[in-house]
Specification:
mainly alpha, Arc Repressor Mutant, subunit A, two-stranded antiparallel sheet, 46% helix, 6% strand, disordered N terminus
Length: 178
């Protein structure tokens, strides 16, 4: 009794899947909330701790991981000081659309209409953001049902076989419906 057991999780960093590898970097709840707050402009450890209501140990662990993964950078507030700020890197800023999509999903599906406690808008104009949507490189909006995932030449053979089988099954189902 009295010993704390640190929860360990299986690393997904070796999976040949972009989603698995992204989840490996940012997929725990505290990391996502740290990123949410960093996008909102939080920079200091004490501010993260106060806003999140998380223990210093857990917060230190998540900030360290996000810095090690290149999502955040830790910078001294002034030379010779032991105070630091955390800022999003380019890698971290590129997570904003994913976090905003998650926020918009949460607003729609976990709150009563019009009852979200948070509003995201453009700082200078106050204009609300449009819902994140799926679109082609040319800007045409598409639905999830329009999408097809396929393996690239960089995928291991087992992944190529898996996607080929998935496509064959989808084609059989499509033919059966015709």
């Amino acid at each position: 009794m009295g010993q704390s057991r640190r929860m360990t999780r299986t690393s997904l960093s070796r999976y040949p899947c972009p989603v698995a590898r992204a989840v490996d970097v940012i997929g725990d709840p505290w990391s996502l909330l740290v990123l949410r707050d960093a996008i909102a402009g939080v920079r200091r450890f004490s501010d993260f701790k106060t806003r999140l209501g998380v223990s210093a140990k857990i917060l230190t662990d998540r900030l360290t991981t996000l810095v090690e993964q290149g999502v955040l950078v830790r910078q001294a507030t002034s030379p010779g000081k032991q105070r630091f700020e955390y800022e999003l890197t380019e890698k971290g800023r590129e997570l904003a659309p994913a976090l905003i999509a998650l926020m918009q999903w949460g607003e729609r599906w976990t709150f009563e209409p019009g009852r979200s406690p948070v509003r995201l808008s453009v700082r200078e104009t106050g204009e609300a953001l449009a819902p994140v949507r799926l679109e082609t490189a040319s800007g045409r909006e598409v639905e999830v049902s329009d999408l097809e995932m396929s393996a690239t030449d960089a995928a291991p053979e087992i992944t190529r076989q898996s996607y080929a089988a998935l496509k064959a099954r989808a084609n059989r189902n499509k033919d059966a419906q015709s």
